[in-house]
Every structure is written in C-alpha cells, then in structure tokens.
Amino acid sequence: EVQLVESGGLLVQPGGSLRLSCVASGFRFSSSVMSWARQAPGKGLEWVAGIYGDGTTYYTEAMKGRVTISRDNAKNTVYLEMNSLKPEDTAVYYCNAEGTRYGYWGQGTQVTVSS
Questions:
Q1: Separation of alpha carbons 40 and 90, rounded Å
Q2: DSSP-assigned beta bridge partners for residue 98
Q3: What digits encode the pLDDT tens for the residues 47-77?
Q4: In the prediction, which pLDDT does 62 show?
Q5: Could you identify which of 2, 32, 89, 93 might form a hypothetical disulfide with 26, taking C-beta atoms 3.0 to 4.6 angstroms apart as the criterion?
Q6: Apex CA 19: angle with CA 94 and CA 21, to 5°?
Q7: Contact 13, 104 (CB under 8 A)
Q8: pLDDT tens-digit profile of 88-107?
Q9: CB neighbourhood size of 38 (10 A)
Q10: Environment class of residue 49 by beta-carbon count within 10 Å: exposed (0-12), middle (13-18) or buried (19+)?
Q11: Phi and psi at residue 88, to the nearest 5°
Q12: 18-33 CB burial, b ≥16 within 10 A, e <16
C-alpha cells in the first residue's frame, strides 16, 4: 500500500520557521522525484519545491531563499524547511511522489502563519 504521511504543520508567528516531514512507503522512494506543493484558502494548488533522487533541487521563485527541500533515502523521508514565514504562506502543504508511471499525493499538513 502506498502511503505519504506529512507532519510538522503548526500555527507559527510571522517570521518563524518550520520543518515539514513526509514519510513514504509502498513504492521506490529513492528513484522518485519528491515535491512539496501547497493550497492556500480559496486558491489553487501551487508547487513549492522538488528534489530528484540524486539530490538535485528546484524551487518556485516565489519562495526561493526561504525554503529548503531535502531527502533521506535511508528513511524514505523528504523534508521542507521554511524560514521567514509570512501570513500568505498559510496553506495546506502536500507531499508528492512522481515516477515514470506513477504519481502519489499525501493528505496534507496545515501550516498557519498568524500573530
């Protein structure tokens, strides 16, 4: 059974930091492209960052410099570190796994940035 389980979402004050985690199982994690996307209230899904199996990373320009994506293939886990958080970063953050013939999504974790 394929599972992507996100965690780490919290209520955080503006300027704060968070690290999200996504633990994967049921597919070949090390060869999958792992990504994070988010959906803010009333808006569409927005891609945030991605990482290849070899560690190559890419980021949306909107968040570049404030987020870092990383992975631990031994733990089947991908992380998203976010800094200098703003109220407009409030969203449900989703983990995504992509392979040649598959694409999977997690259930999401809520991040709320508010004072």
A1: 6
A2: 33, 103
A3: 999 999 999 999 999 888 999 999 999 999 9
A4: 85
A5: 2
A6: 50
A7: no
A8: 999 999 999 999 898 999 99
A9: 22
A10: buried
A11: -75, -5
A12: bebbbbbeebebeebe
